[in-house]
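Long-time lurker, first post. I've been practising inverse folding by hand and with some scripts of my own, and I keep getting stuck on stretches where the C-alpha cells seem ambiguous. Below is the full C-alpha cell string for one chain I'm working on. Before anyone asks, I'm not after the true native sequence, just a reasonable design that respects the backbone. If someone could post their per-position residues I'd love to compare against what I wrote down in my notebook.
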C-alpha cells in the first residue's frame, strides 16, 4: 500500500512536470500566435496585436499602420512617418512576402514608401504623391482584392479627404481600415484638392451600406487618438453633419484652431465626430 502511494506520488510528480512544460510551451506559442497585446516598442513605434492576424503599428507622432497576415502573404496598410528600419521591424512580426498599400498619399500615411520597391495606391492621389519615390507604383480601383491566402482584403474608393482615398475591407473579419477617409474623430475636408461636400456624403452612404453588409469595426488612420474601432453611429453622425453643411441646417460652425489647408478653416461637431471644412469653398459650390 505504502509502495503504491509512493508510485502514485511519483506519477503525480511526473505529471506535474509534464503539465508545467506543456503550459510553458503553450504560453510561448500563445504569445506569438494567439494572445493579443503589445509585441514591439522602440522610440518611434509601438506594435500591438489586435486580432489573430492583425497588428496596429502606432508611431510616436500618432500616425498609424496596420499589418495583416494571410497564409501566403502579408499586407501593410500605410507606411507612417520617420521610422528607422521599418522594413526590418516588420520582418520581426512576419516573414511572409509583403504587399504595401497606402490609403491615400498624404505624407503621414506615405512617409516611408521609400523602404519598399513597390506600393499600391489609388491613381487619383498621384497628384499628392512625393515625386522622389523611385519604386514601382501599382494602382488599385474600387473592388480590387489583395488575396493574402485565407484572408482577402478588398479596396473601396471613398473620396473626399483626398480624391484617391480608399478604405480596405476584410469582410470575413468584419474590419475596415479607413485611413483618413472618415477621420479619427476629425475628418479634414479643407485640404487641396478640395472635393464637394456631397462627395463626402456619398462616401459616408457607401460606408453605411458596407456596415449594413457585415462590416462592424472601422479602424481609422490615427488610432492613437481613439484607441478603438468606430461603428456605424460615427459614420452616420459624419454624414448628418455633412448634410447639415450642404443644407445650412446643421450645428453652428466654429473656427478651427489649426490653420492648415486654407486661411480660415471652420469646424462642425456632433458627439465624437467633427468635420473641418473651407467655408469659402462651400459658398463657391453653392453659388454655382
Ligand atoms: Zn490625410
Ligand atoms: Zn492622416
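-- Answer (accepted) --
I ran through it position by position. Result:
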Amino acid at each position: 500500500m505504502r509502495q503504491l502511494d509512493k508510485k502514485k506520488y511519483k506519477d503525480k510528480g511526473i505529471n506535474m512536470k509534464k503539465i508545467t512544460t506543456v503550459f510553458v510551451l503553450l504560453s510561448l506559442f500563445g504569445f506569438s500566435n494567439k494572445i493579443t497585446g503589445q509585441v514591439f516598442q522602440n522610440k518611434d513605434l509601438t506594435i500591438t496585436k489586435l486580432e489573430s492576424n492583425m497588428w496596429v503599428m502606432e508611431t510616436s507622432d500618432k500616425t498609424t499602420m496596420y499589418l495583416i497576415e494571410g497564409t501566403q502573404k502579408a499586407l501593410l496598410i500605410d507606411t507612417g512617418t520617420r521610422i528607422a528600419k521599418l522594413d526590418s521591424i516588420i520582418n520581426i512580426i512576419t516573414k511572409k512576402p509583403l504587399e504595401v498599400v497606402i490609403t491615400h498619399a498624404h505624407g503621414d500615411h506615405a512617409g516611408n514608401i521609400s523602404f519598399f520597391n513597390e506600393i499600391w495606391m489609388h491613381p487619383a492621389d498621384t497628384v499628392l504623391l512625393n515625386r522622389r519615390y523611385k519604386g514601382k507604383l501599382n494602382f488599385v480601383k474600387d473592388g480590387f482584392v489583395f488575396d493574402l491566402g485565407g484572408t482577402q482584403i478588398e479596396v473601396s474608393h471613398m473620396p473626399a479627404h483626398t480624391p484617391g482615398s480608399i478604405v480596405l475591407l476584410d469582410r470575413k473579419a468584419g474590419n475596415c481600415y479607413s485611413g483618413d477617409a472618415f477621420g479619427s474623430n476629425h475628418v479634414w475636408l479643407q485640404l487641396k484638392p478640395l472635393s464637394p461636400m456631397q462627395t463626402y456624403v456619398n462616401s459616408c452612404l457607401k460606408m453605411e451600406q458596407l456596415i449594413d453588409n457585415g462590416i462592424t469595426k472601422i479602424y481609422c488612420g490615427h488610432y492613437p487618438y481613439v484607441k478603438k474601432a468606430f461603428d456605424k453611429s460615427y459614420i452616420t453622425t459624419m454624414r448628418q453633419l455633412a448634410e447639415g453643411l450642404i443644407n445650412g441646417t446643421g450645428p453652428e460652425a466654429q473656427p478651427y484652431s489649426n490653420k492648415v489647408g486654407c486661411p480660415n478653416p471652420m469646424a462642425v461637431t456632433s458627439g465624437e465626430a467633427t468635420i473641418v471644412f473651407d467655408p469659402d469653398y462651400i459658398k463657391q459650390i453653392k453659388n454655382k
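A couple of notes from the structure itself: The chain has a mean pLDDT of 90. The chain has seven helices and 17 strands. Happy to go over any region you disagree with.
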